[in-house]
Structure formats: C-alpha cells, structure tokens
Amino acid sequence: MLTNRMMAGVYLGQFCINSLTYFFLTWFPVYLVQERGMTILKAGLIASLPAICGFLGGVLGGVFSDMLLRRGNSLSVARKTPIVVGMLLSMSMIICNYVEADWMVVAFMALAFFGKGVGALGWAVVSDTSPKQIAGLAGGLFNTIGNISSITTPIVIGYIIAATGSFKMALVFVGANALIAAISYLFIVGDIKRINLKGISDPLEDKPLQADSPAAPHTPR
C-alpha cells in the first residue's frame, strides 16, 4: 500500500488533515487564552463553536460529494472537489494573524474547522480504492498514519511557540498542512479507482453464500 502512489497520496492527505483536527483539540483553547487574552471560561465556550461548524461541514461534505457522483461526475471529481475546497477554506485560519477583533478570530477559526469537516472524506476514498483482498490492512494503515499526526502536531506546535513566543508561525504551520493535503489529492493521488491485486483471490467472492436451513415444522401433540 505504501508503494502505491495513489494510496501514498491518500495517506499523506489524511496525516495533514488530522493535523488540523488535533490543533483544535489541543492548542486552540490555549491560543484563545494566551494569544487573545480570553478567560478560561470564555475560551471553553468559544472553542466549541468551530467544533460545531466542523460537524456541519462533515455532513455537508459527504452530501456534496454524493451529489456530484449522482450527477454523473467521475469518482475523482466527486471526492477530490470537497477535499480540495475544504482544505483551502481551512487555510483561512492564517488570516487570524492579521485581525484584532475576537469575533473575526472566532469566525475564521470556525470557517477553518468547517472546511476541515468538508474535506474529511478520507474514509470514503479508502473504501473506494482499497483492494478487496486487503481492505482491512489498507484501512488500518490509513488510520495509523492519520493518528501519527495526533502525536507529532501538538509537539511541533509546542516547539514553534517556544521558539517564536507566539502562535503566528504555529497557525502558518497548521495552514500549510491543509495546503499539503490539497496538493496531495490534486497531484499525487491521481485518478481515484479501486486497486486490483493480481494473484490474490477475493475471499468474499470465493466463499459461496449459504442460506439458512428452514426450521423443522412444529408437530402439535
């Protein structure tokens, strides 16, 4: 799977997309308190708004992708369009480095998390492309590589903040991950199609389906 260009691009994209998620889960409340001077209570309340937008984006991204597919677009167009558009929206968090009003910061962060939700179609792509014979392995690698960013992202952001004394470059780092994800799907993944492994049979096709035997008739006494 790692040697296949399409799957490698999908895995790279998921790593970068998860970096967005774990910024919001780990450092976003700290950003609101330290960089924007909010109280912990206010930061806790405000931090939930981007998450709500991310939830809505996730639903709308899936609906939009399926709509494109029903209208006759190719699988590549139907999956890539929401992902690329969503990642470009996620880059809007960098604008927070240049605005002062708290409501604008919250708005751009909410837009960024909404975009992340729209572009979170990785599992749909994996189900579209994984060889049926090793779908479990393909999905496991996808999940593992994506979750590696849950370890690396908070650490890297911490080092950036310690080195620069602010969150500005940290936001650029997270926004750059969104850009890399978009580039990965545009130029590395290529056409989205199922991988067929030669010489390995599909266990689901080889195993015949067995109908349940009818129950024995009940004989009244």
Number of domains: 1
CATH architecture: Up-down Bundle
List low-pLDDT spans. none
> Whole-number radius of gyration?
22 Å
Q: CATH topology, which one?
A: Growth Hormone, Chain: A
Helix content: over 70%
Number of strands: 0
Instruction: Tell me the structural class.
Output: mainly alpha
Q: What descriptive keywords fit this protein?
A:
single chain, 221 residues, mainly alpha, Growth Hormone, Chain: A, transmembrane helix, MFS_Na/Anion_cotransporter, transmembrane transporter activity, cell membrane
Kindly describe this structure:
- With 221 residues, this protein is mainly α.
- It has helices at residues 5-26, 28-35, 40-70, 75-90, 102-118, 122-129, 135-164, 168-188, 203-206.
- It has one domain: MFS general substrate transporter like domains (Growth Hormone, Chain: A).
- The model has no long low-confidence stretch (mean pLDDT 90).
